[in-house]
Amino acid sequence: MLIIGGGIVGCSVAHLAKRGSTDVLLLERKKRLTCGTTWHAAGLVGREALLRQREARVRLRLVAVALEHADRLLYHNEPIWRNGGIVGRPTSGMFDHFLNQSLGLRYVANGGAPLSDEWITAGRYEVEIAAERVPARASLRPFYDPNSERVRG
Ligand SMILES: Cc1cc2nc3c(=O)[nH]c(=O)nc-3n(C[C@H](O)[C@H](O)[C@H](O)COP(=O)(O)OP(=O)(O)OC[C@H]3O[C@@H](n4cnc5c(N)ncnc54)[C@H](O)[C@@H]3O)c2cc1C
C-alpha cells in the first residue's frame, strides 16, 4: 500500500493499514512527518476522545464473521451470539463467492468491559438468522486475503 503525504491523515491511515498489512510505504515530500497543515493545528479534532479511549482501553471491536453453513445468507440486522449471549450488532453482510460462505462484519462488546484479543477469539459464536442460530466463526482479521497478497500481486 502506498500513502502519499505524512500529515495526520496519511500517518493515521499508515498506522491502521500496518495492523492488517505488512507492506505499507508512506511518502512525505518534506523533511518531517506532520509538517503540513497538521503542524499548525493547536489540537486536532478527536484527539481528546482518542486519548480517553486509549486510557479506558477498547470496549467495542469490529470482528469479521463467517457462517459455517454455505446455504445460509446474511440479510440485515442479524445479532451475533457468543457463548449463549448476544454480544453484537451487524454493520454488513454478503455472500463471498471466493470462500463460498456468507461473511459479515459485527461490532462486539462485553458489557462495557475492556476487550482483549483472547476474549474475542476464544468464544463460541452463532449468528441469529430468522430466529435460528447459525454457527459462525469470528476473526480479528479478514477471512479473505488477510495479508493483502492478492492486492499487491
Ligand atoms: C493554521 C491552521 C490551524 C489549524 N488548527 C486546527 C485545530 O486547532 N484543530 C483541528 O482539528 N484542525 C486544525 N486545522 C486543520 C488541520 O490542521 C488539517 O485539517 C489537518 O492537519 C489536515 O491533515 P492532512 O493529513 O490531510 O494534511 P497535511 O497535514 O497538510 O498533510 C499533507 C502532507 O502531504 C505532503 N505532501 C503533499 N503533496 C505531496 C506529494 N506529492 N508527495 C509527498 N508528500 C506530499 C505534505 O508535505 C504534507 O506533509 C488547522 C489548519 C491550519 C492551516
Describe this structure in words.
This protein has 153 residues and is an alpha+beta fold. It folds into two domains: 2-56, no CATH class; 60-139, Elongation Factor Tu (Ef-tu), domain 3. 22% of the residues lie in helices and 33% in strands. It contains four helices and eight strands, in the order E-H-E-H-E-E-E-E-H-E-E-H. It has helices at residues 8-20, 47-56, 117-122, 149-152, and strands spanning 2-4, 25-27, 60-67, 80-82, 85-96, 101-109, 125-129, 132-139. Strands 3-6-5-4-7-8 form a six-stranded antiparallel barrel. Strand 5 (85-96) and strand 6 form a beta hairpin. The termini are close together. The protein binds flavin-adenine dinucleotide. The site of flavin-adenine dinucleotide has 21 residues, from helix 1.
List the helices and strands and how they pair.
Layout: E1 2-4, H1 8-20, E2 25-27, H2 47-56, E3 60-67, E4 80-82, E5 85-96, E6 101-109, H3 117-122, E7 125-129, E8 132-139, H4 149-152
Parallel strand pairs: 1-2
Antiparallel strand pairs: 3-6, 3-8, 4-5, 4-7, 5-6, 7-8
This protein binds flavin-adenine dinucleotide.
Short synopsis of the structure:
With 153 residues, this protein is of the alpha+beta class. It has 4 helices and 8 strands. The protein has 2 domains: 2-56, no CATH class; 60-139, Aminomethyltransferase beta-barrel domains (Elongation Factor Tu (Ef-tu), domain 3), CATH 2.40.30.
Task: Note the main attributes of this structure.
single chain; 153 residues; alpha+beta; Elongation Factor Tu (Ef-tu), domain 3; six-stranded antiparallel barrel; two-stranded parallel ribbon; 4 helices; binds flavin-adenine dinucleotide
